[in-house]
Design brief:
A five-stranded parallel sheet has the order 2-1-3-4-5, with helices on both faces. It is an alpha/beta fold. The chain is 40% helix and 21% strand. Strand 3, helix 3 and strand 4 form a beta-alpha-beta unit.
Length: 121
C-alpha cells in the first residue's frame, strides 16, 4: 500500500472516501482514505503521506485545524483542500496558511491532476 506517491484523502463524506481513492489509483498513485482528521493523525501512514487531500469542514476536527496540528508537529505535507463552499475569502485564507490549492466540489479530474502536480513539485 505504501509508496513514494501516497495520497491521503481525509473527508467525512463517504462517497468522496470511496470514489477519490479509486480515481487516484487509476492515475497511478497509492491512496488511502480516512473518515476524520483524528484517524489520519493516528495512522502509521502519516509519515509516508506525500500529499493530503483534505476536506475543510468536518465534524470534530476541521481541515484547517488538522493543518495547524501538523504544523505544530513540524510535519510538512503539501495540502490540497477540498470543499463544498465556493468562498473566495476562505480560499484566500487557506492559501495564505500554506495550502497548495483549494478545489471546490465537484472538481474535474484535470483540476485534481494540476493540484497534485503542484503539490508534488
Amino acid at each position: 500500500m505504501t509508496s513514494r506517491r501516497l495520497i491521503a484523502v481525509v473527508d467525512d463524506d463517504e462517497s468522496i472516501r470511496e470514489s477519490l481513492p479509486d480515481l487516484l489509483r487509476e492515475l497511478g498513485f497509492s491512496a488511502q482514505a480516512f473518515a476524520s482528521a483524528e484517524s489520519f493523525l493516528a495512522s502509521p501512514l502519516l509519515s509516508e503521506t506525500r500529499v493530503l487531500l483534505l476536506d475543510v469542514a468536518m465534524p470534530t476536527m476541521s481541515g484547517p485545524a488538522l493543518q495547524q496540528q501538523l504544523a505544530a508537529q513540524r510535519r510538512t505535507i503539501p495540502i490540497v483542500f477540498i470543499t463544498a463552499q465556493s468562498d473566495d475569502d476562505l480560499r484566500l485564507r487557506l492559501l495564505e496558511s500554506g495550502a497548495v490549492d483549494v478545489l471546490v466540489k465537484p472538481f474535474t479530474e484535470s483540476m485534481l491532476i494540476d493540484a497534485l502536480t503542484a503539490a508534488l513539485g
